[in-house]
Amino acid sequence: MPNAPTLSGELPEPPEKAKLLLSNEIAPVEGDITDTTALSTFIIDNSINIVVDASSAYEAAGKILDGVINAATIRQGALAKDNMIGPKLGFVYTSGAWVHGSQKTRINDLAPVGSVLSQGKPATPVAWRPAHEQDILAARDKLDVAIMRPHTVYGRGSWIWSTWWGPLAQAAKLGSISPVQVAADRTACPGVVHVDDVAAGFHAAIDRIDGRLGTWPVFDLVTETLSVVEIMENVKTFLGVKALIEYTGAHENPFLEALSLVSKSDASRAKTVLGWNPKRTEFLLNLPIYLKAWQASQ
Ligand SMILES: NC(=O)c1ccc[n+]([C@@H]2O[C@H](COP(=O)([O-])OP(=O)(O)OC[C@H]3O[C@@H](n4cnc5c(N)ncnc54)[C@H](OP(=O)(O)O)[C@@H]3O)[C@@H](O)[C@H]2O)c1
């Protein structure tokens, strides 16, 4: 909850993460989002219109959804007592491209995920996610929903790229000329999208969540698909590394396996339905900017 002023009228010092949010003009709230009752109470007490789950609270995703449905049910019930209806509570869920698994041919976000009809098997870390997406879609009697599936996000901290870029940055630092081992399959081909374009996609979905997303409110957000070799050779050139790269595979590690998926997904529906117009394209051309930002955030 927002910090209460002290008797002297001064606000107490907020925790570190709250300070970061405050400095970005976002009102932080302290509380446990996985406490279903606390979450629904907070939504009602603060007249929240739309909840965006952008957390990585994977094991608790169901509890967060339950809290949001609970709030919507209470709100609908209160209005029903006065024979009234109101707008539905909005819920935007951050899923991701890994639910598609690897593809052999081009697909889009109408392709079913986690089913016998799917080309690929969801990556192990998100094997639970197709069922969670279904739970969200099944709650449309109570909620206006959107499910957003960004592909691998770059820009600013680019934390997810550290696994691949880290060994090359280390080799550059040491001036090493022996082969640099990168824990990826040589065939890896991720879809990529800049964090600003992800935000724009979410905004576009939020703007249209009141029934203007059609019957399938699920959107992949991706601007390019690029092979790991192409990406890493460009990283190598920029960092001035002379050594060869050795792709050592995913070592049966679920996270590394997910990074090594092959994406052949496009985002044409996000463009036509949401009017999404990604502006931060040309990942390789602008790679030096993203690498410098990533290095600065390490
Ligand atoms: N990064 C990508 O390339 C990418 C691509 C597609 C989809 N996604 C999806 O986007 C979502 C966010 O990922 P991200 O990359 O933005 O991760 P991130 O930078 O690690 O952010 C995750 C946030 O969730 C918060 N969180 C985790 N568990 C929580 C809990 N139990 N209660 C409250 N907050 C909790 C974390 O807070 P703390 O820092 O305090 O732990 C953190 O602020 C995930 O669902 C992920 O699957 C990410």
From TrEMBL:
GO CC aspect terms: cytoplasm
Listed InterPro entries: NAD(P)-bd_dom_sf, NAD(P)-dependent_oxidoreduct
Single GO term (MF): aldehyde dehydrogenase (NAD+) activity
SUPFAM superfamilies tied to this protein: NAD(P)-binding Rossmann-fold domains
Record protein name field: NAD dependent epimerase/dehydratase family protein
Organism ancestry: Eukaryota, Fungi, Dikarya, Ascomycota, Pezizomycotina
